[in-house]
Amino acid sequence: MTTSDQKTHILTITSNPVIQESVEGAFRNEPDFSLLDPSVLAIGILPAIETEKPQIILLDFEYKDEESYDLVDKIATRFPGTAVIVILPETKVQFSDRVILSGARAFILYPFTQKSIQVTTKRVLELLTRNYPVTPLPEMRKAIVRPKNTYVVYSPKGGAGTSTVAVNLAIAINQKAKDKVLLMDGKQMFGHVALMLNLRTANSITDLISHAGTLDPHLINQVVVDHTSGIKVLPSPSSVAEGQGIRPDDLYKVVQGVQSAFAITIIDGGSFLNENTVTLMDAADKVIVVLNPDLAALRDVRQFMDICKNLSYPAEKIVYILNQTGLKTEIRREEIENILKVKILTSIPMDEGFCLSCLNEGTPLIQKNSRHPISKAIQNLAGLVLKQISDANAAYNAAEKQASAEVLAKSSRLG
Description:
alpha/beta; Rossmann fold; eight-stranded mixed sheet; five-stranded parallel sheet; 13 strands; 47% helix; globular
């Protein structure tokens, strides 16, 4: 077994010899990967991970009758730089969501082909390296990352109103910034952005996915759709089959492409958490978490906060807003902040009739009535987002200026 530091180390945790043999066959001729000897598990799973430091763990869901969810959670919490892929029997596919919520980066159904486990592992490795880039020289200054001015609007609870917030936030930002704003439907299946904007078009993100490796601003502008509000829109796929075919690595390249073409990007991340949703969050500066003032939403958001820790997202990457407020029976904002130990950025009131009429008409509420309390609340949110973007850009420019000055000073000292 090669132990070169240039290789990606994989630890397979299984008591099934067929799975072990299949994994070994899949990576035997892969020069960039190295399988760790399963005998290292004799000292225990967590001590073995501590000692061997694998980048990828392939975990058999049925390993020695252990509680897989707890094991995934322990690994993800203690070793955030290690990605867990759960090998899930086809008969237990219904547990896939819980596997992801426990902290796994992905799952693969067993029995699997050698090709499928190679592809899944490489996808996860790409996701992992985005959050844990390698710095070749420790003496180099900390990398200065240019802000991407990209926000994902997401909620772990369905029906929280992510699409309504994303659509109207993009329009409000466009009105205030007078800059090129793109609204992207990040839901690969059952996206509603085009419907809410009354856009009738065959264009969708799949038109860019097929050119993921060769995107340029001209091609992107041919695919995105103009809306009367002035924003550009990238709709979701028109069929479920197209949505299911979108891979995380291609999606990431598309997001990078639109970020280079537009000053600000707002993405409707929906409420379903999978590899593609995580890819969108990885590519964004911040995630706006939409929560309703009820107990179910608090429970789901708390679970999502644990996932963010497993993904090693810094606390400042996640922004929380309250939506659909105003009911007498709701949990108060102060109580929510105390329970979740976070600061709520802003609140948006509820008006079910107004929102429903806007949806049925295909008219964004901020265009239908800009003086409505919901519209004013979203305009306030847009101002807060633009302030964050402005501060981030200013900090980047200052850091770049300081770094350039340090380089010039060092060059002058060296003659």
